[in-house]
Design brief:
Layout (H helix, E strand, L loop, with lengths): L17 H16 L6 E2 L8 E2 L10 E9 L3 H8 L5 H13 L5 E11 L4 H18 L2 E9 L9 E12 L14 E6 L8 H10 L7 E2 L4 E2 H5 L7 H10 L4 E4 L4 H7 L6 E5 L8 H10 L3 H7 L4 E7 L4 H10 L4 E9 L4 E3 L2
Parallel strand pairs: 4-5, 11-14
Antiparallel strand pairs: 1-2, 3-6, 4-6, 7-12, 7-13, 8-9, 10-12, 11-13
EC number: 6.3.3.1
Catalytic activity: 2-formamido-N(1)-(5-O-phospho-beta-D-ribosyl)acetamidine + ATP = 5-amino-1-(5-phospho-beta-D-ribosyl)imidazole + ADP + phosphate + H(+)
Family: Belongs to the AIR synthase family.
Amino acid sequence: MSANGAGSASYAAAGVDIEAGERAVELMKSRVARSRRPEVVDDASGFAGLFDASALLRYRRPLLATSTDGVGTKVMIAQALGRHDTIGIDLVGMVVDDLVVCGAEPLFMTDYIACGKVVPERIADIVGGVAEGCRLAGCALVGGETAEHPGAMGPDEYDLAGAGTGVVDADRLLGPDRVRPGDVVLGLASSGVHSNGYSLVRHVVRTAGLSLESSLPELGRTLGEELLEPTRIYSLACLALTREAEVHAFAHITGGGLAANLARSLPAGVDALLDRSSWTPQPIFEVIAGYGGVPQEEMDRTFNLGVGMCAVVPASAVDGALTTLRDHGQDAWVLGEIVAGTGQARFTA
């Protein structure tokens, strides 16, 4: 007994379980290995992830691109349902599809998980989802960190974030300076809500008295299953498009909605005119708007409404671009056109 009567102190007594962390690492190793690229180099110490930069020699003037993000309060849906194997896919989608907007190929990612208590199987499921997302994106998961924060977070609470690095040749950099009047905007279908607007989603669920376990006829499955549908990862389809067709710009439709995100990829002298009648949003958006009494303007500026990515291409490239995207499993359609304007994206119908 110590002089103050508190007893002997230890990390475990403070709430940190080192052995559980080590067990989690062992459980996730095989899943992480599935995301490996040939450029990954093993670091025996495990303190850093290594990537062979000689792979960049094939580029004339390689520009490194980096992005970081999280998945917001969608983690609370995963926690409420006790399902943790897809939230990592969301993380990858939010990071790599920001990279691909400039035309960059995602090379590798790292992740960070903070939790109230390390449950090895849960951590392995989360990281397994990240690794699966990296596999779908064509990049490698080269490292990460899991931190136990007892007292700061409850034992069933966690949050995750990630950072990614990609590369693009300087002369193939995409962006607003390439966009011209007469270009066409293509819409690439989302898989649903993705990972934005979940604070509003949870508010609607709570105030409307909905249950995540309820099966809604509009959805054909439970509300919780719909809300956990992983974010679609567009990187491979978009990179194929840049190889096989002329592309002027992409826009990743995340928080802020379609118009605001597309406007970021427009120069000051043009507008994007978008035809709302060219697609039908998934039923989940009708559920959110209907049960929550959410007006169209608020839906527009909060959710992707069924359009997760946009591509801006010259009119002559439209047919080929749509074929390429569909050949790579991506539903796409003509969403609008580029006209002279002031740098805005707006709906015409």
